[in-house]
Amino acid sequence: MSRYISTLMAVFVLLAYACGTSDKSLTGDARWVHKADSVLALMTLEEKIGQLNLPAGGDITTGQATSTGLGQKIKEGKVGGMFNLKGVEKIREAQRVAVEESRLGIPLIFGMDVIHGYETLFPIPLGVSSTWDMELIEKTARMAAMEASADGISWTFSPMTDISRDPRWGRVSEGNGEDPYLGARIAEAMVKGYQGDDLTAHNTILACVKHFALYGAPEAGRDYHTVDMSRNRMYNEYFRPYKAAVEAGVGTVMTAFNDVDGIPASGSKWLMTEVLRNQWGFNGFVVTDYTAINEMIDHGLGDLQTVSAMALKAGVEMDMVGEGFLTTLEKSLKEGKVTAAEIDEACRRILIAKFKLGLFDDPYRYCNTDRAKNEIFTAENRQFAREVAAQSLVLLKNENQVLPLQKKGTIALIGPLADNRENMAGTWSVAGRFPEAVSLKDGLEKALGNQARILQARGANIVYDADLEARVSIFGKPTRRDSRSPEAMIQEAVNIARQSDVIIAAMGEAAEMSGESSSLTDIEFPASQRELLKALKATGKPIVMVMFTGRPRAMTWEQENLDAILNVWFAGSEAGDAIADVLFGDVNPSGKLTMTFPRTTGQIPIYYNHKNTGRPLDEGAWFEKFRTNYLDVPNEPLYPFGYGLSYTTFSYGDINLSSRQLEGDQKLTASIELSNTGKYDGAEVVQLYIRDVVGSITRPMRELKGFQKVHLKAGESKTIRFEITTEDLKFYNYDIEYVWEPGEFEIMIGGNSSDVKMASVEWK
Ligand code: BGC
Q1: Which of 282, 312, 281 is nearest to 207 (CA)?
Q2: Are strands 668-676 and 656-657 parallel, antiparallel or unpaired?
Q3: Distance between CA 67 and CA 60 in Å, rounded?
Q4: Does residue 159 have its Cβ closer than 6 Å to ligand 1?
Q5: By alpha-carbon position, which residue is closest to atom 4 of ligand 1?
Q6: Per residue in 550-563, pLDDT tens?
Q7: Which residues, listed in sequence order, are joined to residue 260 by a DSSP beta bridge?
């Protein structure tokens, strides 16, 4: 009988939907509202609140709680969607229960943390950002959407666009680095890649920009910690990538765990309504982060009923895992603490997203088992991931052109990450097939065949501290700690090094040393591995360090003592092949850092677009009494933002300006001659920075305002042009008005943020 009733109701929903579509006079948003309202009219209060509930699918839990009794809740209409449930069969079954066994048959939405690829994994986002190639980045998101949608997923919790300037915070690995402008461009590319032009297509998915807001600025780099920031910095710097995602049409926004100016983000009406909706015009829905409503209790904002009402009133629509909405909103409505209109509005926005995805037309749109079999982790996708991975590698040092290596002789492959497939993909790789990833050893063996001999030794554990290592041997990514003494491991490594022509040292962090809840107080290169490197150095053999990391590391000793350093991040499922492509010169490295590498942990936070101070230190100076500096290290970082070498060399001419005096809406063209002066074809990321010399508020020393990735053949030259308008000069002033102010501007162009050519203009 109940089955009969739910089928009947489902027919009503479809009829209601059909009525919604038949009204030709409605366009744009009104059309979606009309469709959603036609369903809303049939729903009970309980069912409306049910749509706001997002339990975890069961395969994965990232927080403190898991969701229980899911099947029953779906039948009762108490679930709006699920996430991190992997596999098209499981998703189809959950959808079947929703559509066939709940009273109204409203389809569920299925989300997942598809952060840097699905089964085919790209480098961690910090790595992908180092390509500075927006087309490529968009394509990574496109391919991730294609694979995820082939396996039942219609919503990803990506892009993560939190600006991050503190490498102690483990989640810097998930973002795009420190720069607002670059972060904004990447946010747009990712949203376009996931959502495409048509969300109803079977292979596009809904994106979710996160974590709104300011999650990347926790005090002391400790995850989930307090954030306190001036509004000026929010608008000029940290807000920009989220805003760019909204302007690119992102369908959903995720709240941050942290508080902002004393209010947890998930309860902040100022953030969720005033900024997001009123100022930026966001018209999708807001989901909390994992149990973020419940966590407002710990923040000291009240009991579950109070904080749930606060979140709804702030403008949050969906409650991830915590069931605060599910268990308290009815009571709050009775007590007048929330209104029926607020619940309707939240439900409406979620229904609209489901309409936009076409789930009311076909709830199984993403559940095609043929696609699941044929379109995921294919040879073609993996080949593309290999290309992206190779583009993401950043060459930090290459003394005497020790790289590229020749395919001959004997190579000593040494280090704790030389042969560890599971650690190649890095953090947040929920759908990954780790044992099938390509390790560095796999990649080298394939590349070399029998042209050269590889001798291998572990040499050291990742860190001396076994407890720390156990904490990061999680999520199917074992570090395989060796129980031998450090001395014994070093001895073995030195022995093989002595028999070799060159050492490839596979060093750095384990994959889960960065990511969520993976903060460090000390980002110095691990001591166990540095001791090994010192012993290897004593052999006199050239050392090429292949550096695995999810964050900038302080590695001054390594920079001073090793011959070459190739920073490889966690380069994804095809890491080993991509690294081999670069080591042997089949691909010329072109990645550039999107986050500053400090010399020491104590320099944090360190970022290129800082402001001038009173008592600035002269450029190039180290210490001067009563100037802004340190007694023990220079102010400059080890590697600046935008830095990265190539096997070839590039030289820049002087900047040519179309005019030195401009007025109002005139356009400025800045051009520069770029020459490939080396022996290899290669790509260079040409970067444009601008300084507003005098402002009504203090202004950064330079800000990235444009970039072009240029491919030049050996010996080739090209004129690179940037068009600059007053849009590029705008900033938020003291009163948070977006303006440009006439005056002098310094135009800088170069290959990294510290090494630029400069010319000035007057713009009135
Ligand atoms: C993370 C989010 C993620 C969510 C769902 C949270 O712990 O902060 O980034 O999307 O879990 O897995």
Answers
A1: 282
A2: antiparallel
A3: 10
A4: no
A5: 290
A6: 999 999 999 999 99
A7: 227, 263
Ligand 1 touching residue 62 (CB < 6 A): yes
CA 181, CA 657: separation in Å to the nearest integer? 22
CB proximity list for 515: less than 8 A, separation 6 or greater? 170, 171, 173, 174, 426, 427, 428, 550
Distance CA 69, CA 711 (A): 56
Tokens of 208: 């979710």
Give 145 Cα–ligand 1 centroid separation in angstroms: 18
Domain definitions of the chain by residue range: 2-57+69-372, 379-594, 650-763
Topology of the domain comprising 2-57+69-372: TIM Barrel (3.20.20)
Nearest-angstrom CA–CA distance, 605 and 710:
31
Dihedral angle over CA of 618, 619, 623, 625, nearest 10: 10
Q: What is the CATH number of domain 379-594?
A: 3.40.50.1700
The helix/strand/coil state of 163 is coil
Q: Annotated catalytic residue: which of 162, 166, 289, 319?
A: 289
The maximal CA–CA distance of the chain, rounded, in angstroms, is: 86
Residues 182-238: tens digit of each pLDDT: 999 999 999 999 999 999 999 999 999 999 999 999 999 999 999 999 999 999 999
CB 47 less than 6 A from any atom of ligand 1: no
Ligand 1 pocket, residue 295 CB under 6 Å = no
Looking at the domain 650-763, which fold is it? Immunoglobulin-like (2.60.40)
**113, 116, 225, 257: residue to mutate for ligand 1 pocket, most atoms within 8 A of CB:** 113
The reply to whether 650-763 shares the fold of 2-57+69-372 is no
- Give pTM, 2 decimals: 0.96
**CB of 113 shorter than 6 A to ligand 1:** yes
